[in-house]
Amino acid sequence: MFLFKFIVLIWFLCNSTKSEDLGYNLNIGNAIDVFANYGDLSQVTQVISAEYEGEESTEEIVPFSEKNIRVFTNFTSQESNGEVNSITNMDMVLCETFDSLLNEYFKNFKIEGTDKPWKAFMGDWIPDEIMRTFGIDYESKPDCCFVMVKLTKTHKSEQLGNLRGVALKDYVVRAIENLNVSDTAEVRRFMRSYGTHYIDSYKTGNFIYQVFKYKRRGFDLLKSVINLTNRRPDALQNLRFYFSSYFLKQVGDIKIASGNKTTETWARNNLRDIQYLYSRPSLLRLHYSSTLVNQLHKQMDNGALIGLNLKTLRPLFKDKSKADKFAEVVENDLQLWEINA
């Protein structure tokens, strides 16, 4: 009887310790199971404005709410704060296809083992939903190109230190010792319990963005002018000319990564460009007005995840061959999920 109680006590202590290491916030070095929400990670990470008209949320906007578990013990990390009183210069990205636009939007998101991180965040969404998050109308066969304009405000970034010699939590050590990496089903059970990747770095803040849908001839002209002058797109002297209705198919709605409806409404009302008889929201207004940039800065919260780097849990394994086999299962599954998303 005493032995039974002792075993129960040990089991309880082990599992309670593991529970204390579970979290739902951004915890550098913690592990997550990418497959738990693959294709819809944007529901547990605030990376894009997915709220539609009339869907005002009263909940606090948080950049990350995915379940994660502490697997390392004595690691170090380096944290830095962004430019508190400023927004970075305007970025202008030229994209031949909508797929390349998605790749550009998620260029600061890395998931080891996959070539298209955006599919982990939005792969399960239908095309109509995805295009609405970018403020543009859906087309089944879009014969057009895209230019994305965005301004970024960085709040905080954190980078994990060197993991050489870092110790593991006891329950992770036991799980690895009992893991048969040659059994794919067993590896997948391990992944569900302890994750597939750890958070190597992240960046929080916000960015405001707008997509312009271009006619092919207008897009080619803009690209050729940029190539000839060897300048940044936003440095063109007559920038508004290349964003006129003559070249465009659609001016997309202004969106903000945190999904803050108040800021989006402010931008639509205050960032208006008047051309001929038309008035429309345009981030290009910020290019000509430092006053508007300062006003926008005050409007932008820190509720978005604007960068994330996830690495496979190779460092958990002291045995290189065991680490390679584990990573192979994770990366093969990622490739399959990526194709099917």
From TrEMBL:
Keywords: Signal. Residues 1-19 form the signal peptide. It comes from the Eukaryota. This is Torso-like protein. It comes from Chrysodeixis includens.
